[in-house]
Amino acid sequence: MLQQRKLIVPFSSNKQLGLILEVIFEHNDRIRNPHKYATQYVRYGLHEEYKRIEPSADLTSAELVSFWKHEGLAGGEVSACHGPVFGRGITCIATGDHDAVNRTFEFLQWHLLRKLPDVYFDGVPAITAYVCDELVHDCLHASFKVVADERIHTPAVVPTTVDQLVRGCCYSTRTVTGNPEFRALMMELEPGQTRNQKMNLNAKITPYLSHYHDVYDGWMVAGVQFANEARHEAEAYAAILLGQRNSPPPMAALASPDH
C-alpha cells in the first residue's frame, strides 16, 4: 500500500543545506536514471555484511522550515544540528510502500553521513533524516519556503546504449577511528565544565574520524548481477534488453565478492 511520509533533515548553514540538496537530488535521480550510477552495497564496519541501498520512494515537496522551540539554546551552528527541533531544517514527502520508504531512509542515512562526516553534537552525528511526526511538526514555525523543483528533480532519460545499461557494482565500507585531537581536548576541563559543554564549544573538533573504502567489483544489468570477469556476458544481456540481439539471456554469475 502506498503511503506518504514526511521527513526532515536539520541543518545550520547554507553550505550544509547545499550538500543535503545534493543528496536529495541524487536520490531522486537514481530512481529516474539508475543507469547513471553504480549499484551500491554498503556496510558500517569491517565485520558487517554488505547491504544494497537503492532508493525507491520519490522525494517531493521540499520546503525550508525553522523551529520555534529551543532557538536560543547553545547558539551558533551547534543548536541547529542538535536534532529535529532545533534551528532550521528541510522537509520532503516520501511516497511509496512501506519497504520503499524504509529504503529511502537507508539511502539518506548513508549519504548524509558520508557527505557531512564532521558534524557532531553530543558525540553523535548531527545531520540525518528524521520522521517529521506530529511532535516535530508542532515545533515548526507556520512560515516556510518552497524549494524549487529543479533543485531536487531531473528528467528521466531512457537508456539507449549497452554502456548505459551495464552498471558497475560498488562495495563501500565505513570505518570509524577516534580523533587524537579530540582526545587531547577532553583531557583538560575547566572547573565545573562538563564533557558535553566542552565538546559543543569545540564542535569543529569531532570525536571520531570517518574513513570510506570503495571497491568496484561486478556488473548489474536490469537487476541481474554478473561477475567482474563477465563483462562480455553483461553486455550481451544488455543488448538483448535493447532489442539488438535475439539470443536467450546468458547465465549470470551471482557470487558475492568478499572485500
Outline the structure in words.
The chain is α+β, with helices and mostly antiparallel strands and 259 residues long. The protein has a domain at 3-36 and 53-155: 2-Layer Sandwich (Alpha-Beta Plaits). It is 29% helix and 28% strand. The protein contains eight helices and twelve strands. It has helices spanning 14-32, 76-80, 98-115, 134-137, 162-165, 180-185, 195-201, 231-241; strands at residues 3-11, 39-43, 51-53, 58-66, 88-96, 120-121, 124-125, 130-131, 145-146, 167-178, 208-221, 224-226. Strand 11 and strand 12 form a beta hairpin. Helix 1 packs across helix 3. The longest helix has 19 residues, at 14-32. The radius of gyration is 21 Å and the shape is flat. The two termini are 37 Å apart. Mean pLDDT is 86; it is low at 71-81.
In brief:
The chain is built from 8 helices and 12 strands. It has 259 residues and is α+β, with helices and mostly antiparallel strands.
- State the helix count: 8
**Multimerization status:** single chain
Poorly predicted ranges (pLDDT <50, ≥5 residues)?
71-81
Name the overall outline: flat
Radius of gyration: 21 Å
The CATH architecture category of one domain equals: 2-Layer Sandwich
Mind summarizing the main beta sheet? 5 strands, antiparallel
C-alpha end-to-end distance: 37 Å
Topology as a string of helices (H) and strands (E): EHEEEHEHEEEHEHEHHEEH
Number-wise, the strands total: 12
Q: What value does the average pLDDT take?
A: 86
- State the CATH class of one domain: Alpha Beta
- The CATH topology annotation of one domain reads as Alpha-Beta Plaits
**Strand portion, in percent?**
25-35%
| SS class | alpha+beta
Q: In percent, how helical is the residue content?
A: 25-40%
